[in-house]
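BUG-231 | component: ligand-complex export | severity: low

The export step for S-adenosylmethionine jobs runs without errors, but we want the raw record kept on the ticket for reference. Input record follows.
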Amino acid sequence: MKCCTAPGCRAFESAFDAAYAEKDLVAYRKNGPTKPTRLLLQAIQSHVDVRGATLLDIGGGVGVIQHELFAAGLGQAVDVDAASAFLAAARREAERRGFADRVIYLHGDFVALAEAVAPADVVTLDRVICCYADMPGLVGAAAVRARRVLGLVFPRDTWWMRIGAWIVNLFERFQPDPLWFHVHAAEAVDAVAAQHSLALSFHRNAGLWQVRLYVPDRHADAFVQAGVEEM
Ligand SMILES: C[S@@+](CC[C@H](N)C(=O)[O-])C[C@H]1O[C@@H](n2cnc3c(N)ncnc32)[C@H](O)[C@@H]1O
C-alpha cells in the first residue's frame, strides 16, 4: 500500500474510518449490493463479458464491485482508495472469498497515483465523485484508463439534491477535516468522458443516485442498436 500524501486525504481517513467500513461490510454481507450498485453491475455485465477481464475500482469502499465481479469470473482487479480502513475491509472480504491474491490494493488519491496505474477493461467510480471537488481531474484520469467501459454512480443533479448537499456541507464546516459533498452536473461528466472518446451508453436513476455507463465511441451505436439498455 502507498501512503496517502495528497492534500485532503486526512478528510477521507476520518470520514471513512474503521467503524464505518465495518458497518458497510456487515450491511453488504447481509443485504448484498445496494440498488444503485446492483444497477451498475448489471449494466457493466450487459456491456462486457467480465470473464478474465480486468477491473480498476476507484474508491471501491469495502469492495462490493470487486467481490461481485470476481464471482462472475473477473480476472484481476486494482483497488485504489484514499481511506485505509476501507481498503483493509475490502482485502479482508476478498481473503474470505479467496480472491485477494488477484487484487492490487493502492492507498491514496487516485488523481495523484493515476500515472502509475495501468488501464483496465472496466473502470468504476461508485459514489466517489461526490467526495471530490476536481471532478474533471478524477473522471478524466479514470476515463483515459477505461478500455471497454467506464461506470459511475453519483448524486442526481436536481435542485433538491443541491439543497441536501448544502445542508450536509453546513455540518461539515464544524468538522476538523471537512469532507465536502459535491453534486456534479451530469452534462459536465458526459463532457469529460467525451474528451476521452467515451459515449454515454446507459443511464438510470435510483433514488438519490444516478448510474451512468460510458463505452468507447466506436461501440456506442452498436450497443444502442442491440437494445442492450436505455440511453
Ligand atoms: C462514499 S464511499 C463509496 C464506497 C463504495 N464505492 C460504495 O459505493 O460503497 C467513497 C469512497 O471513495 C474514496 N475516494 C473518494 N475520492 C477518492 C479519490 N480521489 N481517490 C481514491 N479514493 C477516493 C473514499 O476514500 C471512499 O472509500
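Assignee comment: Attached the raw record above. Confidence is low (pLDDT under 50) at residues 224-231.
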